[in-house]
Queue: 2 jobs
Job 1
Amino acid sequence: MKIVNVVGARPNFMKIAPIIEEMRKFPGSISPMLVHTGQHYDDNMSRQFFKDLELPEPDVFLGVGPGTHAQQTAKIMVEFEKILVREKPDLTLVVGDVNSTLACALVSVKLNIPVAHVEAGLRSFDRAMPEEINRLMTDAISDYLFITEKEAEVNLLKEGKPKDKIFFVGNVMIDTLLKNKAKGDSSGILSELHLASKNYALLTLHRPENVDNEDKLKGLIDILNEIKKRITVVFPVHPRTKSKLDNLGVSANNGLKLTGPLGYLDFIKLMSEAKCVLTDSGGIQEETTILRVPCLTLRKNTERPATITQGSNMLLGTDREKILKEVMNVLKGKSTNSGIPELWDGQAAVRIVRILIELSGTNAFSQERC
Ligand code: UD1
């Protein structure tokens, strides 16, 4: 069974790593290929993750780079189609919700090659988010839907997906976190940034809804200026956010440490030793849940409800009073008493690969689209 696995943007790398590693344990059953679309292309957004996660070099690099959504999605489709026509795989496996996920799923189904979507069924119910459109469209056309939490099944069933195509397998991002936690612990990032454990807050911001709107970003910077009076804030800046901060004249100063995007191992070390994390990322809500670090999510919705119902996540939007109140609660030591969501146990990739091998044994892939 030849499987083309797709990565494109930063959050894809930690999701695909355990899947590729597991597939490689079954050379008699699976021949995995790795295609990198090049949606993210900088060393610190891409190459560093291959090193940190010991990912094999991609078999194919499409090198699409930046562009508008239409340009980027279209470029990926044109280039990816050539690869599928040449390689004729039995299955395409896509992860997450980035433009590469949707573009490659769409090309694949049009060529009658079945698609497996890992991290299916998550919904923010906010169609202004490009990721929500990518999630809805990818799930609508995928043949096998691997989900990270039970709520995702509810969403998929409501959208008319058949129950026998949905597989609750756990969370591959957590497989990677658990596997690399010890390595991350030996990162020297704390001393490099002159930080002490539990003596700083970690901030990330890159969602268009927060950083592309100047007023919203100004409001968030005001809140940041309040927080840093009470605790040092470390802010690794995403490329999308960098130019916006430059325009607003935000620079490192007393209480605010700005860095470029960090590698995976350094970042998990920074997360695990932080007093709290403030973020608009999706994956970080999940990782902080496992690390049991309070996560203050600067969004009005989350597609990952288990991080709230079971984990350490709080949904605060961009409301100044709410955010400052929760930061103070954390500083006063108010505990979150969080637990670990079901099946976030480091075995998701094992389950996925086992299911794929079983499906290929029943000839499901060839029957699927004939
Ligand atoms: C993308 C994903 C988002 C994910 C995020 C993680 C989509 C729709 N969005 O958003 O879901 O959470 O990645 O990072 O797919 N840039 C660089 N160097 C890079 C990559 C990007 O400078 O290596 C620049 C781009 O040129 C562009 C901006 O950053 O100006 C945004 O990049 P883009 O990939 O369009 O979207 P992200 O905001 O990163």
Note: Residues 2-170+347-366 form a domain with the Rossmann fold fold (CATH 3.40.50.2000).
Job 2
Amino acid sequence: MSSQRLDDATAPCTFCRIIQSDAEDVRDFGTMVAFLDAYPVSQGHFLVVPKRHLADYFELSDIELGDSNRALRDLRANLLMVDSTITGFNVGVNCGTAAGQTVEHAHIHLIPRRQGDTPNPRGGVRGVIPAKMSY
Ligand code: AMP
Ligand code: ZN
């Protein structure tokens, strides 16, 4: 992956460093990579990340969006194959600090869900504003 040029290879960006590391646990999906989240919401929580240093999801090109979809589907299929306790997924993107983004390099969360992992899962991603989760 080090052959892929980044827009700003000198940026002190956590995800750029991971992408440039050529680590075995970084999976290649063309213009995108995927790796496990270091502070997972659930076991098998992946991040799908562009090789280019982009601010957020809305800067992804159509090719990067296509590779993202391929990554999400491949990762999901693989997770379902190896872990029969997974019964659902959340796919989520935080864009901007107001929306909870903490790493300023675009990424898509793929979060496996299991029956009973939270007492009342109804509402899912609506929980970004906890008081609005239930409706
Ligand atoms: P967000 O809040 O949407 O910006 O998500 C950033 C995600 O990156 C969080 O879920 C973190 O757990 C994850 N994260 C932060 N640092 C690392 C790292 N060094 N390796 C993998 N995941 C990380
Ligand atoms: Zn970066």
Note: The pocket of zinc ion (ligand 2) is lined by residues 11, 13, 15-16, 53, 105 (CB under 6 Å).
